[in-house]
Write a structure and sequence with these properties.
Structural class: alpha/beta
Strand content: 15-25%
Oligomer: single chain
Mean pLDDT: 90
Largest sheet: 8 strands, mixed
Radius of gyration: 22 Å
Strand order of the largest sheet: 1-9-7-8-5-2-3-4
Helix content: 25-40%
């Protein structure tokens, strides 16, 4: 009996190996146009001075990237805050994410809201989960913004370290219009703000008071990054969130609130700790802005809204 058992195990292992080799041969034989290092986008910068890719339409092969990362079996977490009247934007955010955000990947959505009973029902594809977490409401939108880093830090420590590979933190008052996929994955990922990417850095709305931990001195800074879209490896975003939270809390003890709350602290962090991948303004446009010629596609965009009607102050 022992001999028969051994033979059976050997057969099973052999079949498993053959199936594995068949899978690898099928997936490693992808055919695509030969890449070039001398032809490509000439109207935009596609690499930073510290050699981080700047992702624009036409700088990557989406099918190749998806095949690479799907083999890695990665899980992407996404956080979104729908506090107060901002709950009205959640349905469009979730529905359009099903159409465009990491389609075919495992994605865990974490919705933070003070109105859990108003979270809309959205049909999600296999491998995609929606989890709702309650947070307190606030009388000031600045406090809602500032608390996000603390909540993201806690979520990673309590839930994500052994569950997700990457995390993206996105604004709920936005919707997807085009593909957002594996081309965005990286260690520390920043998104160029659509309102300032053509401006000189002297016009960037950095925190300019030296007393603040978010301070960026005149003549310093690379780009102005969005607070409404950032991400990367879970451990990298954890360090970002932990650092920005501490800097914000230290400021608060001295009675200082940075010019743009968490966005100011994020920009300070990204100045000191350079992102390993930079996403072009395609990844967070603004619906009220006409599309500039270099923007060939809008992937994600903030919707037009009346802040007086949705913010608590």
């Amino acid at each position: 009996m022992a001999v028969l058992h051994t033979k059976a195990v050997t057969v099973i292992l052999s079949v498993t190996v053959l199936l594995g080799l068949l899978y690898l041969s099928q997936h490693y034989s992808l055919k695509y146009n030969q890449p070039s290092i001398v032809h490509g986008r000439a109207d935009v910068v596609t690499v930073t001075p510290w050699l981080a890719p700047v992702v624009w339409e036409g700088t990557f092969n989406p099918f190749l990237l998806d095949s690479i990362y799907k083999r890695k079996n990665v899980t992407i977490a996404i956080t979104v805050f729908a506090v107060g009247k901002y709950i009205m934007f959640l349905k469009d955010f979730l529905q359009t994410s099903e159409e465009h955000f990491f389609v075919g990947f495992r994605v865990d959505f974490y919705v933070f809201t003070d109105r859990p009973n108003e979270v809309p029902k959205v049909n999600m594809a296999a491998g995609r989960m929606l989890m709702v977490r309650s947070v307190p409401s606030s009388n000031r939108w600045q406090e809602i913004s500032a608390r996000r880093m603390e909540i993201i830090q806690n979520l990673i420590e309590e839930k994500l370290q052994n569950r997700a590979n990457y995390i993206f933190c996105l604004d709920v008052d936005s919707k997807f219009h085009g593909r957002w996929g594996a081309e965005s994955l990286g260690g520390l990922v920043a998104v160029i703000h659509p309102g300032y990417y053509r401006d000189d850095r002297s016009k960037f709305p950095y925190e300019r008071r030296p007393a603040s931990n978010a301070y960026v001195a005149p003549g310093e800074g690379d780009f102005y990054y969005c607070g409404g879209a950032f991400g990367g490896l879970v451990q990298e975003v954890h360090l970002l969130a932990k650092t920005c939270r501490k800097n914000f809390e230290d400021d608060a003890k001295r009675g200082i609130e940075a010019a743009w709350q968490e966005e100011s602290h994020l920009n300070r962090y990204m100045w000191i700790n350079k992102p390993s991948k930079v996403l072009s303004p395609e990844y967070l446009w603004q619906d009220f802005k006409p599309k500039n010629p270099e923007v060939h596609i809008i992937r994600f965009s903030g919707v037009i809204k009346n802040y007086a009607n949705i913010r608590p102050n």
